Automatic annotation (TrEMBL):
A Pfam family of this chain: Lactamase_B_2
Record-annotated Metallo-beta-lactamase domain positions: 37-193
Enzyme class (EC, first level): hydrolase
GN (gene name): rbn
Record's protein name: Ribonuclease BN
Organism field: Methanolapillus africanus
Species lineage: Archaea, Methanobacteriati, Methanobacteriota, Stenosarchaea group, Methanomicrobia
Length: 248
């Protein structure tokens, strides 16, 4: 199993249009890890490719990672930075299999009615199989979404947990469900000195990682309020676009 962070930015991405802060300035340099496209994660086995969310930057991400076919899409919630790229399937791939809670799947497929989708409604904590892996969803909190979810991935030997867009005070059952991941990919939109709503700052992300006893933690959904990547990664476990993790 290989997990690749396709996009590690927040909704506006870095560089943010019209901004010349240190992070955005660094992000304009070629090859800079401060350059962050919008959120998506690629999960791969020899059997195929699954996307967690369809970033508005999906086309560039799939070309960059040389992905020619997507075997399933799992949506965490109905915010534009997590589904906007679904339209990129237009005339490229038909009958895309999509998974998520009913509210989210219906919301997105109604907007993109012109893309044919094979819809799969998923209940919380009910595992489903794709590309030889087991996936399941748990409830998080992300105002004003009614039922935003995080994702657990298992290959039978390793457990990966993705928080999705997430506030700190999620249900106790979810904290129980997330326990002991080998890798925790977590929303940490801003550094600790900044207040935050709808997401977590770095302190809260570390706190959640500790609550679930994560063996390894990587931050994603990062805003330009962090400094340049190469400076900040001394202090925080920052993900970057194209970062990957392999589990045998
Ligand atoms: Zn900026
Ligand atoms: Zn969101
Ligand atoms: Zn988001």
């Amino acid at each position: 199993m290989k997990i690749t962070l396709l996009g590690t930015g927040d909704a506006p991405g870095t560089p943010t249009i019209g901004c010349s802060c240190p992070s955005c300035t660094d992000g304009k340099l070629s090859g800079s890890k401060s350059s962050r496209t919008r959120f998506s994660i690629l999960v791969q086995t020899e059997q195929g490719n699954v996307l967690i969310d369809t970033s508005p930057d999906m086309r560039a991400q799939l070309l960059r990672e040389n992905v020619s076919h997507v075997d399933g899409v799992i949506w965490t919630h109905g915010h534009y930075d997590h589904y906007g790229g679904f339209a990129e399937f237009y005339r490229v791939q038909r009958d895309v299999s999509v998974y998520g809670v009913k509210e989210t799947v219906d919301y997105i497929t109604n907007i993109y009615f012109f893309i044919s989708a094979d819809k799969h409604y998923v209940n919380l904590h009910e595992p489903f199989s794709l590309i030889g892996l087991e996936f399941s969803l748990f409830e998080v909190k992300h105002f004003p979404e009614k039922l935003p979810v995080g994702v657990v991935i298992s290959d039978g030997k390793h457990k990966i947990v993705i928080s999705g867009d997430c506030e700190i005070d999620i249900p106790k059952e979810s904290i129980d469900y997330m326990q002991n991941p080998d890798l925790f990919i977590v929303d940490a939109i801003v550094p600790e000195h900044m207040a935050v709503n709808k997401h977590m700052n770095s302190t809260q992300a570390f706190e959640m990682a500790e609550q679930i006893h994560a063996k390894k933690t990587v931050f994603t959904h990062l805003s330009h309020f962090y400094g340049a990547h190469d400076v900040e990664c001394e202090k925080y476990p920052l993900g970057y676009d194209g970062m990957s993790f392999e589990f045998d």
